[in-house]
Specification:
Shape: elongated
CATH class of the largest domain: Alpha Beta
Radius of gyration: 22 Å
CATH superfamily of the largest domain: Glycogen Phosphorylase B
CATH topology of the largest domain: Rossmann fold
Distance between the termini: 21 Å
Number of domains: 2
Structural class: alpha/beta
CATH architecture of the largest domain: 3-Layer(aba) Sandwich
Number of strands: 13
Helix content: 40-55%
Largest sheet: 7 strands, parallel
Order of helices and strands: HEHEEHEHEHEHEHEHEHEHEHEHEHHH
Strand content: 5-15%
Length: 398
């Protein structure tokens, strides 16, 4: 959204220079997970919409600012990452509370629900309103009484998907009118359609016409819900129909040894590669290496990786029980399957690889890329944020 096209309310506040926002993030520089990426885009969008505001950004785990990040001169970072892990939470909370009492910002936005306990305390003392972002597992099965109270008293909660919003409302006593949806976004400039990179074909010993399935995920024992076990199991049937199929399961974590044992037990060593962590500068190339991106998860809040794969024009498969429904637009942008049904996963992946899946958009890379940009690109994210701000009560306290 260009500033000249902003709603009247936004234009009004763009002219003011005495308003201050406090943004509370886990980190945005030294680790890149879903929450971190969302936080960085949220800061960038706010700076673009309100360039005259003062921004104080509090980062729990980061230790320093890294260059090449869009930054306004009126933005200040406060780092707590240099504290030992045992003291960091206390130090971070004290910093949030201290600066809040001193600066009295117009609004606090926390990109992690756990931080809202401090925001609630500040609101009780000073009346400062606060917003929070609900991503996925952080928003589910919450039993901590202090956190439940903090969520109940939040002025607005931004859920990254309908699934996350619905589940949060089902589990918590929160006014539905205070829970809005602001979906994830991605950097479309980083993800482009290209031929299969020769250096990756050589690295993994693959032929250019060899069908490749790709998953990029943390291989953590706590993240088994991402569905890579089911894809490995499905390979047994897929290999019968497509003998040279190859599965690249990229990522690192404490679950790798168990995965390697499953691959060995199923005698799939020749069909699966575990390359480990994929650096940022190779991420797009890995998407372009594959013929289908598959992550049939059952507990994903949204899944930015789906958007990245789609931006590379790749057919994409997700689970039909979580935030992948939103990311794949209820099946318009990709295939949705029962994440626990190995036969359905195998059948759908074979259809996609053989060109028979009944969604023609999945075989039109340029159209697929444009559709995901139109739906989830940064400009749309910024427009959605502007609309939420315009339609909220923010105007009464900014």
């Amino acid at each position: 959204m260009m500033l000249d096209d902003s709603p009247t309310l936004l234009k009004k506040y763009q002219k003011q220079n005495n308003l201050r926002l406090h943004l509370w993030f886990p980190e945005i520089f030294e680790f890149k997970g879903g929450i971190q990426v969302y936080s960085a885009f949220l800061l960038e969008a706010l700076q673009s919409l309100f360039p005259n505001f003062k921004y104080d950004v509090f980062l729990k785990h980061d230790t320093r600012y890294l260059p090449n990040f869009p930054l306004l001169t009126n933005t200040r970072f406060h780092f707590s990452g240099k504290w030992s892990i045992n003291l960091r939470t206390l130090a971070f909370a004290a910093q949030l509370l201290g600066y809040g009492l001193w600066q009295r910002p117009s609004l606090i936005i926390s990109s992690h629900l756990n931080f809202t306990v401090v925001a609630y305390l500040l609101k009780r003392i000073t009346g400062i309103p606060y917003w929070a972002v609900a991503h996925g597992v952080d928003a589910w099965n919450i039993t901590n009484p202090a956190l439940k109270t903090a969520l109940y008293n939040a002025d607005n909660i931004l859920a990254v998907s309908r699934y996350t919003r619905d589940r949060l409302l089902q589990e918590q006593d929160i006014d539905p009118g205070k829970v809005s949806i602001l979906p994830n976004t991605f950097d479309s400039g980083r993800f482009q359609i290209a031929v299969k990179p020769k250096y990756l074909l050589q690295r993994y010993g693959l032929k250019s016409n060899q069908p490749v399935i790709l998953t990029i995920a943390r291989l953590a024992s706590s993240d088994g819900y991402k569905g890579y076990d089911q894809v490995i199991q499905a390979l047994l049937e897929i290999r019968r129909q497509i003998p040279d199929v190859h599965y690249i399961l990229a990522g690192k974590g404490d679950d790798q040894s168990r995965i390697e044992q499953i691959i060995s037990d199923l005698n799939l060593q020749d069909n699966v590669t575990l390359p480990g962590f994929v650096p940022d500068d190779e991420l797009c190339d890995h998407y372009n290496l594959c013929d289908v991106f598959a992550m049939p998860s059952r507990g994903e809040g949204f899944g930015i990786v789906y958007l990245e794969a789609l931006a590379c024009g790749k057919p994409t498969l997700g689970g039909n029980q979580d935030g992948a429904i939103d990311a794949l637009c209820f099946g318009e942008l990709g295939a949705l399957v029962d994440p626990l049904d190995v036969d359905a996963i195998a059948k759908t992946l074979m259809q996609i690889l053989q060109g028979t899946y009944p969604n023609p958009l999945m075989y039109q890379p340029e159209a697929l890329r444009q559709k995901v940009i139109d739906t989830f690109g940064f400009e749309r994210f910024q427009e959605n944020l502007a609309e939420l701000i315009q339609n909220s009560s923010i105007g009464s306290y900014l």
